[in-house]
Task: structure prediction
Amino acid sequence: MKYYILFGPPGAGKGTQAGAMAEKFNLRHISTGELLRGEIAAGTPLGLKAKALIDDGNLVPDEVVEGMIEDKFNTVTGVDGFLLDGFPRTEAQAVVLDEILGRRGEALSGVISIMIPDSMVMDRIRHRAEIEGRADDARDEVIRHRIETYHSKTEPLIAFYKSSGRYTEVDGTGTVEEVRERIFSIMK
Ligand code: AMP
Result:
């Protein structure tokens, strides 16, 4: 099985690119953000707890998303691998991911990092807000907090994965198609 991480700041285009990647390479796209929004929409206890954190642009506890990922690995069949979008977001999550893969006798296939400057994040998310109506995209101060959280908690993972030799950066500026071609050329 292949295990890819799609990495990058909020608004980099991870969700947009993931669909085409998953289809082309027969991967299951797992977005922890989408799974959490599903819990909120279904009104589950987990969703109720997560909502306040997500709406304010905070991360949910590591154990919550780690459990979701392991559950998908254990239950999804009929694919050649997984494409993780929005996970891991902390060093603790990255360590647990390694442990989960180790228990399965598997290893990470690659980390693809979509890079866009902070100045573009705000515009991209404002644009997405008009289309998707996400609560956490609606307020500038929440977007700014998510950018800060990315820099303080998630960006350190770049060094973590660079040392593994399976980390590749892709320029995330330009059209959706241009970015997709850059990603596909790496995955081939
Ligand atoms: P996303 O759809 O990836 O932008 O995620 C939306 C929100 O869900 C994030 O701002 C976090 O509040 C929460 N979330 C998603 N993935 C994670 C994760 N791996 N760890 C902690 N919180 C997460």
Q: What stands out?
A: The longest helix spans residues 118-132.
